[in-house]
Q: What sequence folds into this?
């Protein structure tokens, strides 16, 4: 298992180097540079030249890139934001807790809704409840986040005055954004749970479980759900990873200072170090989430676990029934 | 039963207490003022700032040497008196009782240090270009002789602008410029208490302030980028004041019982610019034709929903020496005649480049239709700010959104040295622009700018479109909020009742 994790972490290095190169070239070859944007159009060419030389923007492409990578590798330094003059690492880490909180709470809500509703739909296929939940989830998938967010603000902030409309400081502030992101993500989880469960419920071993007189609850939650879990974990992992990159629209609607908003602002201002650092960070987080998902597979499915464990330890469970 | 009596007694007591208080003070001051702004500060370093959103907060933390009022009067701040020794030497006497937030005393060293760092930072360098810091002399700790490279009429405007905020030399040298940008040390009526990146800036009263101390102890700036959400935050009681209200929210706020709109003339304007490098637009008849083909009244009313005024001059009416030229008439028949005279009776196709901001897009799309009516087809290009400024002068028409209160800064786009966007290379104009900067006499200077405005109106390198207002939304509990055209609100004078 350790070997597997170590190998996966090593494999992240070429991915991150690739990502950094692609992003750096895209930003470099796009028209306009930070000097144009940050100094504005009242600046004289001399001002711009001064800014460019202060930030090494007058160097050739490859020199700029290697200098950047040197900082990243030797000092773990992602550079300094052109706009705020703060280290990029500091800027990102200031915003990340908010994004993490939003992503984690939303995913939790999405799992709670998605898995339970998915199971209900699957066990009562084509019933009224199933049709109702399936159509609600269709609406959930197709409803744009920003629209849902605005509707929630209009109803629960403006009309009812239950929750504050913007910010993310207190638990009261968390409710509306988490519901916005969570319900949207839950639709996918629900659909995946339903289809995966439907497939499993038709298997012979479920019939066997029922035949031996097992209660329906144990059949569904223990025998069926456990076997249906792999695709569900995949969907949850993907959605969580995506949210860790920042939910830009939701962050904008609720004025949340998260990673998504930080990145969009940085792109607008051509703040290369921040965009670069942010993308690298998101790629890193995404790889980590993928790794965790893979490890979770092995908990859900002993067959996968056996692939990573050595034969010596694999013998142990085999001895048990004897 | 017993419980009920108890509650009743409590209610009666409460009512009594409230009536006593009402009779006593009338209204009770709150110790916290919460306002909503549209974006976070990029930096707290005044010489590294070029956004109104930055100076708007910084002006409460820092002081300037002087303060130029809207009427052009210069009031003392950190400088108590001043006189010109000659055209390029300005001697200023400084206050002796000023202490920075970190406890160090304010002296002439801080002034020279501030000017020097302004010149060294590309974000401020062109603003301080006329200052000669090498030959500026500190006569004694409270007297400084500012040297100018040439006579510079906007000297007081620059010194009282955000970039002219005096920083504490000791603090900058101790912590370094990058750390200073997050931990500002000034001498203003407020100190920075807390800064949550991207969401909130908290200021607390500076009890050692040399002047009248701030009325409200705490000021909280909440960062809410969406205009509609700022108004919702006011409506739901989350803030007491809102900066930069969108035109389409004005009606909504006016309908609210507890809040109101504060709207006034601003220093903001929208101008259509023509590239003079382009052969087609080099023809004055074509420029006139294009300007006649736009129905400015209909355009401005529909885009700004009745809040903005049609431009009647080359720069905003709130700015010094504004000359009213009148609205450029809407005359499509004449436009067609002029096009025919220029040799294009069937019109032509041209490029029009705009930034992807809502107002710009709406203005441009309507103009596109109006020009199509006289036969001129327009290819519209939308670009982000970075691409916009980077493309130089490749496209034929553009749109400029400005926000400035000094004519020499506004008119810089017509200067050949400036380059981008218009590039008229007009030697007559260059000479006049340079000369106007050096006239100290207010009347003569106004006349010089009047002449320049007449010329610009006639030559029509640009078509001024709209003067947009500054719009605030305030709770009825707020008092002392001026309708500043540049949104530079001094929070020390603002009070809020509970």
A:
């Amino acid at each position: 298992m350790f070997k597997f994790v170590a190998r996966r972490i090593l494999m992240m290095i070429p991915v991150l180097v690739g990502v950094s190169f692609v992003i750096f070239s895209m930003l470099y070859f796009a028209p306009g540079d930070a000097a144009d944007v940050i100094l504005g159009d009242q600046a004289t060419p001399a001002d711009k030249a001064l800014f460019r030389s202060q930030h090494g923007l007058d160097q050739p492409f490859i020199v700029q890139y290697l200098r950047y990578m040197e900082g990243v590798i030797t000092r773990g330094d992602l550079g300094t934001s052109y706009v705020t003059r703060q280290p990029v690492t500091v800027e990102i880490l200031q915003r990340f807790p908010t994004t993490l909180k939003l992503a984690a709470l939303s995913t939790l809500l999405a799992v709670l809704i998605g898995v339970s509703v998915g199971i209900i739909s699957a066990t009562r296929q084509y019933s009224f409840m199933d049709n109702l939940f399936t159509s609600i989830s269709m609406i959930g998938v197709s409803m744009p986040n920003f629209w849902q967010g605005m509707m929630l603000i209009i109803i629960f902030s403006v009309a009812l005055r239950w929750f504050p409309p913007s910010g993310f400081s207190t638990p009261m502030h968390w409710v509306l954004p988490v519901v916005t992101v969570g319900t949207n993500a839950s639709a996918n989880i629900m659909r995946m749970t339903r289809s995966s469960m439907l497939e499993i419920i038709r298997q012979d071993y479920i019939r066997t479980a029922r035949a031996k007189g097992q209660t329906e609850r144990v059949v569904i939650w223990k025998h069926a759900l456990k076997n249906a879990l792999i695709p569900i974990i995949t969907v949850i992992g993907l959605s969580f990873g995506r949210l860790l990159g920042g939910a830009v629209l939701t962050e904008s609607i609720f004025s949340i200072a998260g990673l998504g908003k930080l990145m969009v602002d940085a792109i607008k201002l051509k703040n290369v170090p921040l965009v670069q650092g942010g993308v690298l960070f998101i790629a890193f987080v995404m790889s980590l989430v993928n790794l965790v998902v893979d490890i979770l597979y092995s908990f859900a499915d002993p067959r996968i676990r056996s692939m990573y464990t050595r034969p010596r330890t694999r013998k142990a469970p085999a001895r048990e029934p004897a | 039963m017993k419980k009920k009596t108890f509650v009743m007694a409590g209610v009666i007591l409460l009512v009594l207490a409230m009536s006593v208080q009402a009779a006593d003070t009338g209204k009770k001051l709150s110790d916290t003022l919460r306002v909503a702004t549209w974006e976070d500060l990029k930096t707290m370093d005044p010489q590294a700032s070029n956004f109104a959103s930055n100076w708007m907060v910084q002006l409460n933390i820092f002081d300037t040497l002087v303060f130029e009022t809207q009427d052009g009067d210069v009031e003392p701040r950190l400088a108590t008196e001043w006189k010109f020794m000659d055209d390029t030497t300005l001697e200023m006497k400084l206050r002796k009782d000023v202490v920075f937030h970190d406890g160090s005393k304010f002296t002439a060293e801080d002034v020279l240090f501030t000017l020097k760092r302004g010149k060294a930072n590309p974000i401020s360098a062109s603003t301080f270009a006329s200052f000669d810091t090498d030959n500026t002399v500190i006569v004694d700790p409270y007297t400084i002789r500012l040297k100018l490279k040439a006579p510079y009429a906007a000297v007081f405007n620059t010194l009282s602008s955000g970039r002219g905020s005096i920083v504490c030399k000791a603090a900058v040298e101790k912590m370094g410029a990058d750390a200073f940008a997050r931990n500002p040390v000034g001498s203003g009526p407020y100190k920075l208490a807390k800064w949550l990146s991207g969401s909130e800036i908290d200021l607390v009263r500076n009890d050692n302030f040399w002047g009248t101390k701030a009325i409200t102890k705490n000021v909280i700036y909440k960062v809410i980028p969406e205009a509609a959400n700022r108004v919702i935050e006011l409506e739901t009681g989350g803030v007491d004041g809102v900066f930069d209200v969108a035109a389409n929210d004005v009606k909504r706020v006016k309908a609210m019982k507890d809040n109101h709109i504060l709207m006034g003339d601003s220093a903001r304007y929208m101008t259509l610019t023509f590239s003079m490098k382009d052969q087609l637009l080099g023809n004055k008849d074509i420029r006139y034709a294009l300007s006649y083909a736009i129905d400015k009244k209909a355009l401005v009313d529909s885009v700004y929903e009745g809040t903005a005024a049609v431009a009647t001059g080359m720069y905003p009416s709130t700015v010094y020496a504004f000359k009213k030229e009148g609205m450029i008439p809407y005359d499509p028949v004449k436009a067609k005649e002029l096009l025919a005279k220029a040799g294009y009776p069937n019109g032509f196709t041209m490029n029009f480049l705009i930034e992807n901001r809502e107002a710009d897009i709406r203005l441009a799309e309507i103009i596109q239709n109006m020009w199509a009516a006289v036969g001129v087809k327009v290819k519209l290009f939308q670009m982000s700010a970075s691409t916009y400024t980077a493309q130089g002068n490749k496209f034929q028409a553009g749109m400029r959104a400005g926000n400035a209160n000094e004519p020499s800064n506004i008119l810089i786009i017509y200067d050949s040295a400036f380059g981008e966007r218009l590039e008229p290379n007009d030697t007559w104009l260059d000479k006049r622009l340079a000369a106007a900067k050096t006239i100290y006499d207010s009347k003569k200077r106004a006349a010089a700018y009047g002449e320049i405005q007449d010329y610009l109106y006639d030559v029509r390198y640009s078509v001024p479109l709209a003067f947009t207002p500054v719009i605030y939304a305030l709770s009825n509990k707020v008092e002392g909020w001026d309708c500043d055209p540049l949104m530079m609100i001094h929070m020390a004078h603002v009070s809020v009742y509970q």
